[in-house]
Structures are given as structure tokens and as C-alpha cells.
UniProtKB/TrEMBL annotation:
The lineage of its organism: Bacteria, Pseudomonadati, Pseudomonadota, Alphaproteobacteria, Rhodobacterales. Belongs to the uroporphyrinogen decarboxylase family. One of its GO terms (molecular function) is uroporphyrinogen decarboxylase activity. Pathway: Porphyrin-containing compound metabolism; protoporphyrin-IX biosynthesis; coproporphyrinogen-III from 5-aminolevulinate: step 4/4. The record marks 74 as: Transition state stabilizer. SUPFAM superfamilies: UROD/MetE-like. HAMAP family: URO_D. Homodimer. Its main location: cytoplasm. This is Uroporphyrinogen decarboxylase. It is found in: Cytoplasm.
């Protein structure tokens, strides 16, 4: 069997047509996702129901034939496994009990005590590795320590990650201790996903862009480097995608510094810029603006062709610059894929 297209791109091969998948491809824009989510009851129940989580992971593969499936779960399941209470407020997003003091940090579980909670997630991976079409790559993931910490410190999503920056300034030891616990437990979490059948790992650092200067090196680059180095020691050849979203100039050299095989690019930089500055070091993933999945038409076709063209001289995995939104039209996804595969 020839190697799967995504794995070939991750090893640096330049393919005539880039392989494609989409962040949040299993999500609320799909009627079949909404039906399965209703059957599960709510989002977290869906994440922990291995059969239904595998089902929603497979839905966009059946509908569109994407080259990769991403495990259906969430970056906030790890803090839950470490002992925080997590819930989702309808229409608002995640809420959790906060960790901001030495005592609250000390009360969290250890890195080896997360697997009872996360067992159903590993089972979802096992089901998927049996049921996915043979040409489809299975991607496992976790949040990066900084991004996960921003939610744990604030107890919710924040626009500027203010509470996490404040703790970093006021109590460096507690902040650094939380980052360290998240780094070591993420290594254990991702290792179990790989043992269960994940072929590629992606690390989501959605708020990397708010770390500046030395903070970016210490809390975006260094934790990613530690996670990637240890995973590659345990699983030689495992391909890893890093997503330091909105890192700007921080994208330059990120793959070299961390050992990532691929860097995912958001919409704050142009494909042209990323091709010149990031793709010169290896594979990149991205970066069609997800708004096109809502608006469609000729602008979608033109923008898709432009992303394909800009990255055509190096290894590239086509994706959006961020997750597809609930108001997207499923027809536009089909049009994007058709445009990629014809160009
Ligand atoms: C910050 C973050 C979270 N989760 C995630 C991130 C990092 C990437 C990013 O920036 O989007 C990552 C994530 N979340 C989800 C996945 C599964 C894989 C995928 O489809 O890409 C992944 C990789 C499912 C999800 N995670 C969530 C949904 C929507 C849940 C629903 O059905 O109501 C899905 C499909 C909920 C979630 N989960 C989170 C938030 C802030 C929200 C609410 C916002 C929203 O509603 O979109 C935390």
C-alpha cells in the first residue's frame, strides 16, 4: 500500500494535490452532528461516549472523503482528568473551577492519574483505527500547556488571557508549576492516544499569540519542545503538527526550535508570507479563512486556489486558519474540496 497522503506531506513530500482536512470538521454546521449530539445529551457526554464520539468523527469522512480524521474530544478534558470541575454554558462556552494558588495546584492529580477519566477517549481512538477507511489518517491531539492553563486560571475563555498573564506576573512559581504539570500530563495523555492508534499528533496553542518575547520562548516554545522531544523518543518517527496560533514572527523557526514536523498557520498571516518564512523549514498546514465556509461562491474558489498556489512549491496540508463555524454551509465545504482536487 502506498503511504497515506498526509503522512507523505508530513515527511516533506511535495504532492501534486495537497491532502485536506478541516479543524472542527465534526461540528455543529453538520445536521448529522447535531442529531448525534442530541442523542448523547450534551457536548461532554458526547466526548465521553466512545461509540458516538467515533460516529461524529466518521461523519465528515463519509460526507466529504477528507484525507484525515481528527479524534472527537476537547482540549479541556485533560484539566477535568486532573481534577477540576468542567461544564459548558449553552451559547457561552466552557466554565471550570479555577487553579490560581499553591494549594489549588497541589490538590490536582498527578500526571499518571488521568487515565481513568480519559479511558473513553482512548477507546474512541481504538474504534476509529478499526473503522476509518484505509487511506484516511487518524489525528490525535491535546491543547498546549499555555492555552489549557489560560482556561484553568480564568475558569473560562478570555479575550486577552488577562488572568493567566496576571498570575504569571504575581506568582511565577505557581504559574510555572501548572505549566509543568500540564506538560508532563500532556505527554502521558498523548502517549496513550498513540498506543491506541493515533498516527499523527497535533498540539493546539490557540492563545500562543498573546505571549511576547521571552514569555513566548518559555511558555509556547519550551513546553512544545519538551512534549515533542519526549513523544519522539517514545515513538520514533511519530509526525507532530504544532499550532502556535497568531504567533506572527514567532512562526519563524518554530518547527526547528520544537522539533515539530509541520506548523499550522492561522489567518493573521498570508499564505504568501508563510510560504516564504515558515514552509522553507518543512511542511505547513493551512490557512483558508473559515469565513469562506459561510459566504461561499467565487470568492471561496479564488481564495482556495490562492492558498493551494502559494504553498505549491513545498510540503502542504490544506486546512482552514481556524475551526469551521456553526453557521457554515455544508455545500461550501464540498466546493472547497472540489476546487482543491481540481486545481
Ligand atoms: C480553545 C479550544 C477548545 N477546544 C479546542 C480548542 C483549541 C482550538 C481552537 O482554538 O478552537 C480544540 C478542539 N475542540 C474540539 C476538537 C475536536 C476536533 C476538531 O473537530 O477539530 C478540538 C481539537 C471539539 C469541540 N469543542 C467544542 C465544540 C462545540 C461543542 C458543541 O457541540 O456545542 C466542538 C465541536 C466546545 C469548545 N471547546 C473549547 C471552547 C472554547 C469551546 C466553545 C466554543 C465553541 O462552541 O466553538 C475549548
Amino acid at each position: 500500500m502506498t503511504e497515506k497522503t498526509i503522512l507523505r506531506a508530513l515527511r516533506g513530500e511535495v504532492l501534486p494535490t495537497p491532502p485536506v482536512w478541516m479543524m472542527r470538521q465534526a461540528g455543529r454546521y453538520l445536521p448529522e452532528y447535531r442529531a448525534t449530539r442530541a442523542e448523547a445529551g450534551d457536548f461532554l457526554s458526547l466526548c465521553y461516549n466512545s461509540d458516538l464520539a467515533a460516529e461524529v468523527t466518521l461523519q465528515p469522512i463519509r460526507r466529504y472523503g477528507f484525507d484525515a480524521a481528527i479524534l472527537f474530544a476537547d482540549i479541556l478534558l485533560l484539566p477535568q482528568a486532573l481534577g477540576v470541575d468542567l461544564w459548558f454554558e449553552t451559547g457561552e462556552g466552557p466554565r471550570m473551577t479555577t487553579v490560581t494558588t499553591p494549594a489549588e495546584l497541589a490538590a490536582l492529580k498527578g500526571k499518571d492519574d488521568i487515565h481513568d477519566t480519559l479511558g473513553p477517549i482512548y477507546e474512541t481512538v481504538r474504534i476509529l483505527s478499526r473503522e476509518l477507511p484505509k487511506e484516511t489518517t487518524l489525528i490525535g491531539f491535546a491543547g498546549a500547556p499555555w492555552t489549557v492553563a489560560t482556561y484553568m486560571i480564568a475558569g473560562r475563555g478570555t479575550k486577552d488571557q488577562g488572568p493567566a498573564h496576571a498570575l504569571k506576573a504575581a506568582d511565577r512559581a505557581t504559574f510555572a508549576g501548572l505549566i509543568d504539570l500540564l506538560t508532563t500530563s500532556t505527554i502521558e495523555y498523548l502517549s496513550k492516544q498513540v498506543e491506541a492508534g493515533a498516527e499523527v499528533i497535533k498540539i493546539f496553542d490557540s492563545w500562543a499569540g498573546s505571549l511576547k518575547g521571552q514569555d513566548f520562548e518559555d511558555f509556547a516554545v519550551e513546553p512544545a519542545r519538551r512534549i515533542i522531544t519526549e513523544l519522539k523518543a517514545r515513538f520514533p518517527g511519530l509526525p507532530i503538527i504544532a499550532f502556535p496560533r497568531e504567533a506572527g514572527e514567532g512562526y519563524i523557526g518554530f518547527a526547528k526550535k520544537t522539533g515539530a514536523d509541520c506548523v499550522a498557520i492561522d489567518n493573521s498571516v498570508s499564505a504568501e508570507w508563510a510560504a516564504a518564512n515558515v514552509q522553507k523549514d518543512g511542511c505547513v498546514q493551512g490557512n483558508l479563512d473559515p469565513r469562506h465556509m459561510v459566504t461561499g461562491g467565487q470568492p471561496l474558489i479564488d481564495a482556495t486556489r490562492e492558498v493551494v498556489r502559494a504553498f505549491s512549491k513545498g510540503p502542504h496540508i490544506f486546512n482552514l486558519g481556524h475551526g469551521i463555524t456553526p453557521d457554515a454551509d455544508p455545500e461550501n465545504v464540498a466546493l472547497m474540496i472540489e476546487t482543491i482536487r481540481k486545481s
